[in-house]
Amino acid sequence: MLKSNLYKLVGLGCICLAYTACKMPAVTTKTENKSVPASFNNSTDTVNTGTVKWKSYFTDPNLAALIDTALKNNQELNITLQEIAITKNEITARKGEYLPFVGVRAGAGVEKVGRYTSQGAGDATTEIKPGKEMPDPLPDFLIGAYATWEADIWHKLHNAKKAAVARYLSSIEGRNFVITSLIAEVANSYYELLALDNQLKIVDSNITIQSNALDVVKQQKEAARVTELAVRKFEAEVFNTKSLQYSIQQQITETENRINFLLGRFPQPITRDDNSLNAALPVTIQTGIPSQLLSNRPDIKQAELELSAAKLDIQVAKAKFYPSVGISAGIGWNAFSPTYLFRTPESLLYSLAGELVAPLVNRNAIKAEYINANARQIQAVYNYERTIVNAFAEVANQVAKIGNLAKSYDLKTQQVAALTQSIDISNDLFRNARADYMEVLMTQRDALESKFELVETRMQQMKAMVNIYQALGGGWN
Fold this sequence. Notes:
The protein has two domains: 25-98 and 153-321 and 361-471, Outer membrane efflux proteins (OEP) (Up-down Bundle), CATH 1.20.1600.10; 101-151 and 324-357, Outer membrane efflux proteins (OEP), CATH 2.20.200. Helix content is 63%, strand content 11%. The protein contains eleven helices and six strands.
């Protein structure tokens, strides 16, 4: 009889499985495209600057100290570390779902039923032993253990744990991406600060030049060679340049505070050597080949792991269409008096049950979850492909920028040299009444702007070196 019932249950399970498989909604799948160009500049050299340790890449000791502090104290990075801990706990939670759940149970209570009921009438005529009736009201004492377990036939629970593992690994790559971004942001802000220091020096020097020119104009006015208008024009130019000092000082304060924020500390002076901006540029950048980005860039690896998790989510959602098998069991002792509680076999109780559950009607929620899981997987494919394309574009842009900035810096250096000489020339011509005072003013203004632009170009060169290092995936290793 038992064997016959077992066959019936198996047959019923097969029918449910066939039904659910036939009624599963159709979805559209998409496979990711991992192909990348063969090279950046027709080079097959696999030497890659992105694999260099950041302490070897950034040789300025002041900058290295700032980066080291940021990696220890930055709040965003520490928040990311807690997110990693959360995702790691998710693995434990998912693993626990496919292991048997075992618990203990103990309880005590009392029950009074009506005498003129089937249970009350039965209790009234029952004797525990001769001359000893059933207690009324009836106490109840229980102690035992129980277990439940879902047989993971379709790997629903195991795939959910694998998806949690993929997301945990993805969170680690997310931390690595935060590290590369943090290093780049600290370095870029540091070079901005050095550029502002150099611009402030240029302003101070220019104020001296303009003040000397103002003295010359005053002497020329006393000799009746120029009018009061020329004196006022030169005075206004000196005042304008002096006001520029305070604008730069404010930018210096804000840049220092931005660096301090990245370092997780309150505002304080930033130790630096402003001559570092004019130091030799880092060694020649080696971009390697584009396919190395797939393993070097944390954001690409993060997107790949998110895609893996999304694919597993589809399998989990698909398994919910199939019947699930659950097993439950329990064993313990139950009696109306502690005296009889552990008498065996009289007070012993046990149970063993199995159940087969399959969705047959109103499966809209399961269908929606399955379709949504598939849609999220397609989203993950597009995000993965977009991340690869963006990474390649970032490297290509920075490679071109480094080359163009080098040419621009050489030309601006020549421009500054020419305009610096023209200041002395214009002053001499003005003293000999062979040049108008406006020519002197414009020459000084042009020289100041060209020096500012030269410093700006140098800063952009240093930042390009930082950005290409980040684009190649450097810093996190």
